[in-house]
Design brief:
With 548 residues, this protein is an alpha+beta fold. Helix content is 33%, strand content 26%. A seven-stranded mixed β-sheet has the order 3-10-9-6-5-4-11. Strands 18-17-16-22-23 form a five-stranded antiparallel β-sheet. Strands 19-20-21 form a three-stranded antiparallel β-sheet, with no helix packed on it. Helix 1 packs antiparallel against helix 13 and helix 6 packs across helix 7. The radius of gyration is 26 Å and the shape is globular.
Length: 548
Amino acid sequence: FIPRDRLKGGHDGDKAVVKVIEWPSEAGRNPVGKVIDLLGAAGENETEMHAILAEYGLPYTYPATVEEAANAIPSEIPASAFEGREDFRDVTTFTIDPRDAKDFDDAISIRKIKEGLWEVGVHIADVGYYVTEGGIIDREAYKRATSVYLVDRTVPMLPEKLCNDLCSLRQDEDKLAYSVIFTMDSAAEVRSSRIVRTVIRSNRRFAYEEVQAIIEREKSGEKGPLPGDELVAEIMTLNSMAQTLRDRRMSAGALDFDRVEVHFDVDEKGRPVSVFFKESKEANKLIEEFMLLANRTVAEFIGKTKGRTPKTFVYRVHDKPDQDRLENLAQFVQKFGYKVKTSGTNVEMSKSINKLLADVKGKREQNLVEIVSLRTMQKACYSTENIGHYGLSMDYYTHFTSPIRRYPDLMVHRLLTRYLAGGRSVMQSKYEEYCEHSSNMEQLAEQAERASIKYKQVEYMSERMGQAYDAVISGVTEWGIYAEIIENKCEGLIPIRSLGSDYFEFDEKNYCLTGHATGRKYRLGDPIKVVVSSCNLEKKQMDYALAD
């Protein structure tokens, strides 16, 4: 119950954030609340996206005082900021990002030292220069801990002036960076490395598609000009190194999860008009491998000490799979004729999982096996206790490369600065608390992202009621079967009552429903044809029916 004077101007049909202010103990009395914030009319895109953020306790507006503090930072870099920095402005440098990206927090540079020897620089926006520890911008960034990526928007960790302007490594602009500089040979062996503060100037801003087009043309031997051809030699050298780094990582037992991402094209009102999938290609892997290399190098620089206790640091850690889950995975894939190791060294088990992922490629059960395999894994998180990163098969790993959108990276930058200057170790318990907060906020952001995708899927399918689609059974439960449509990955429930008059028994171990009278089986991974029968945007749920 909300009294009229606590409605804040709200009307029937509005979505609002409400706080319970009283809960009378007498029977039949309603809890009493007040409207904290009005989100807008239910069903409108802005309202629903804000509602998803509010549901997970995530911010959907930026405090004006923090924006004002950011806007007050001068755009011009003072001469004093260049002191003590290595100057890379004359070195070939470029960024590779999604086509619609506005914040460019990493750049890569390359110059030839001599035949077969290269200097490769991984340059990361020096956010710590602009964001003072403990200041108003820093406190808000810590609270958020991460940028949140919904279907149609980014809810940034930092104010726009910082993430899209001052700290964005934009083309043809002098920018302050924190860099890991590698001397590498043609076999992608790192001869030496150093971590330094730099000033850079990006020569070109690439979209992933542009770099991919150059790589594919060069590999096929086709002719014809492409945008960015002036850097073709640099791109192909870096790509060759990245492929070698990746092959080496896989040989060492890194896991090869290559999940397809679902994306939507939306109209001016935010309604989804089409679905497309983003796959990681060579251009993506080029950047990924050098970022992984930089992250590992920074973690080793602090953590890999000989005979000394390492100073407190922020690591990105990933524990090995839980034994029970691993055995469940082995039983599950056995039904499809595959095997996976449940004992042995970490490398042996990782290689066994990689073989499984390679074997299912292109098979109808690929998506299901990948999902179940992924669920077998532990969640990666942040910690001051370094247990290594199982998924990457690295003993030392951190997050250094995205301080615009992840607070732990900013912590890593600050700790590096402190330790490079000879500073004493920080208090571990305090930083462990920071790590725990960052891990929790990351999980909430992921949940909100998934909820926004689910909402758009339901919204998209609500305009396709009654249409038939090829699908695959993606889940089997005692109340029905879940089916995922192949062409757009939208998942819905086929309630058990809609399967006919037969009595169906749920076989949990074999992931199937079996009809008593007919003997008809519905098994995980089976292909079926479905019709969209109902869509509930409020619950983000869809029901399907069998097309036949």
